[in-house]
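**Backbone shape codes:**
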Amino acid sequence: PMVTVDVPLSAMESFRERYSRLCRDSHQEPLRIVLEQARERCNDRGAPMRKRLDVSTMCLSVEQCLILAKCLRTDDTFTDLMLTDCVLNDEGCKALCRALKSNASIRDLNLKGNNLRTGGAEAVGSLLKYNSTLIRLSLEWNSVGAVDGGVTSLAEGLAVNKTLEKLDLRSNQISHKGAVELAHALKKNDSLKELGTCLVAIADCQNLMLCRNGFGVMSVTVHDVHEFYANIDLRWNNCGLLGGRALLSALQQNKTLVQLDLTGNDVPNDILQSIAVTMGRNVEQQALESQHYFRTTVLTREIKQLQEDSRMQISDLIGRLDQQRERFEHTNRSSQLKIGQLQETLAETTHEKELLEAKCNMSEAFVSVNEQKVKDLGDLVVRLKGEADDERKEHKAELEKEKQRHMTLQRELSDSVRTSQKQEAEFETKIHDLQVQQKKLEQHINILKSELDMAQETVKQREKEAAEKLQQEEERHLKMTREMERRHRDEETRWRDLQQSCQQSWSERFQQAETARFKSEELIAQLKTEHIDSKRKWDDEATRTHEHLKDTHASLNLIESRSKTVCSSSIMINTLFCIWSLGLVHIHGTVTEHIQMMTLCDESWETIKVYTYKVTTFA
């Protein structure tokens, strides 16, 4: 694929300035083509285009090569370097290769037609050892194989390199020894995809196809592969039989090459056929690996999506549970505050009740004193009994009214604590009034002492009236206390039931969330199991496919051996018939044996019939 590099505007200017300065310092005339190409170019969309430094057909001296090497050592502007037919010598090639060892932007290097020999090949081999960005290298029309050491250095660099994908070695006088060196390098190199310039487009076809073109080249195509693999192009060298065998052995280990072009190398056709079969197996293996990788990627993406969805759902549930827990805690705190307020109110009410009981005790003490006085004035009470009955009726009516009023106050007290406090204040006022009335009665009793008859009856009536009022007040306070205690118990029971119901509902919701989480984990485990099963299934299918290819190869070898046997038998029978027609020897038994052999070799019935007729006729 084409590589696009975004180059800032200042990069080109700095390269031109540096190149011009180095030329001036070395007293060399700068190449106009270099200055013209060191300019910013953009495509139709305004993006920087791929940068190519093309100095082809320019006779570069050693000084000019040194200047270019200094500029390219740290340059990140150009991606392609074209040095075709530049008549480079070993020194110039070494200088450029040393500079490209540290260059990180050059992807394509073309050294076609420079008559490079051992020195240049050693420099290129050293470049391949240390450079980690070069992808394509062309050495067409050189003399790398003229001396065995050149190919050896190149093979050593090729065996170590991990990034080179295309290497063109056409017309380099490579002998069978050089081909063996390259084969050893290919066994170690797993990144090289092309040794040449002819690309093989892996087309859309259903089955593996082997076809031979007019130059004896076997091509291979496989369906359902979405990449472009290249070929080994060693045309017009001197690989020979030994070189072809070495390359065939290398292809048994190298799985990235899909076409080998050995035109003009005197390689036998059977080796070409074996190479084509090996390349077909490599292509099919690449197709299976690509399909398996694609399906594995899809399944991994789906599993990650499901895991992310499950994680989002679980986090959402946890957030909802936290919110509900916070609301529950807030409700619990507010309930506890209300219960505390009610307890404080109950304590205040109990304290007020104790105060009222103390006042009642004081009233009882005062009544006991009055009773003692009543005993002393018993005689007077008898006289005043009639008048007391009339006054008793009036006081009874007043007490009924007072009782109704107290009942109304009791209902108001149950509505709110504030109302009860007001009622207690009113009760205290009433008690104070009763005390005032009691004092008035005492004064009236003192007045009645002077008038015995009237005073005794008045005092007795007033004392009974006070006793009844005190008894009614005690009963009313007892009723109020019991009512408050009953309401407090009801309130505690209601809050306890509410707390239990809330805890039960939250526990049920938490169990539902746990159940949903367990289901999500089971679904994830099931998807993982299905992914492992599908992977195992595709591995089994790949194994069966390889076994089928081995069986097919064995069948082809068997058919080839049988066809050779049939051909030899046919030639022998024709020879025997010719001898027989001349009357030189009697070979009836020999011909019969060959006919039986042809039958065993699955010869057609018509051919056997013809030979049998000839044998019978001559007999």
Q: What stands out?
A: Residues 1-8, 196-230, 600-604 have pLDDT under 50 and may be disordered. The first helix runs from residue 9 to 25. The beta strands are 52-54, 80-82, 108-110, 136-138, 166-168, 199-200, 209-212, 218-221, 229-233, 259-261. The first strand starts at residue 52 and ends at 54.
